[in-house]
Design brief:
The protein is mainly alpha-helical and about 230 residues long. The chain has helices at about 5-15, 25-35, 40-55, 60-65, 70-75, 80-100, 105, 110-120, 125-135, 145-155, 165-180, 185-205. Bound molecules: iron/sulfur cluster.
Length: about 230
């Protein structure tokens, strides 16, 4: 029996409650977090962000003007700091050059155009681009991550889908939720919350070795029972 995506969202919401993502004070912090979280745990990103805040460089101008070597040192806790420093620098230089340093000018345009530009930047892949679009730009686009792919493989919710294919999962989830939710702002709210709830599920129960007994999806899950 296939699980309806909206029902899945409701079940997770009633079990875990609102997650209130993304944990950041402003749009720029969301973007920095989205780049720093690549291939590392969030607690390491928090350490790096705290260091940037302490040095008062967590702003577009701050990252633009800071010496690359100093930036690398500050973001060291997030790992892959050479690459990530380059990615942060490329991003702020792009916004500075093409949008006069105005993040809102860049973000608040047609979703596909912003997405295309994000994907053309150094080290920004689909998950990072869509995290920026959804959580920093309030665009109605769903973020797929490794946890979503894992869930896709375990639940009969994305039947017939290729669970390794980012775009097919994203489009299927968006299609189903759009059928149910007509208001764009509401959709954005749900996409934000739903992604956070999937992360919560994966960290609490649907781990690599799943702990299914307490999982709210146990009865609907073909993989469950451990
Ligand atoms: S029942 Fe188990 S495998 Fe299924 S979603 Fe829950 S934790 Fe994951």
């Amino acid at each position: 029996m296939e699980i309806k995506i909206h029902d899945l969202y409701k079940t997770l919401l009633s079990h875990f409650g609102k997650q209130g993502w993304w944990p950041a004070e402003d749009k720029f912090e969301v973007i920095v977090g989205a780049i720093l979280t690549q291939n590392t745990a969030w607690k390491n990103v928090e350490k790096a962000i705290d260091r940037l805040k302490k040095e008062k460089v967590l702003s577009l101008d701050g990252i633009l003007n800071i010496e690359r070597e100093v930036l690398k040192e500050l973001i060291k806790p997030s790992g892959f700091y050479n690459q990530k420093a380059d990615r942060l620098k490329s991003f702020v230089e792009y916004i500075d050059k093409n949008y006069k340093g105005n993040l809102n000018l860049f973000l608040h345009r047609d979703t596909n155009k912003v997405r295309e530009e994000l994907l053309s930047l150094n080290g920004i892949g689909l998950e990072t681009a869509d995290s920026i679009l959804l959580y920093a730009g309030d665009h109605a686009i769903f973020v797929v991550d490794a946890y979503t792919r894992r869930l896709c493989k375990r639940l009969p919710l994305l039947k017939g889908m290729d669970c390794d294919d980012y775009e097919s999962i994203r489009k299927k989830i968006e299609r189903e939720l759009k059928r149910k939710i007509k208001d764009e702002k509401e959709l954005v709210k749900i996409y934000k919350e739903f992604h956070a709830l999937i992360v919560k599920l994966a960290k609490t129960y649907c781990k690599k070795k799943p702990v299914c007994k307490k999982c709210p999806l146990m009865k609907k899950c073909s993989f469950g029972g451990v």
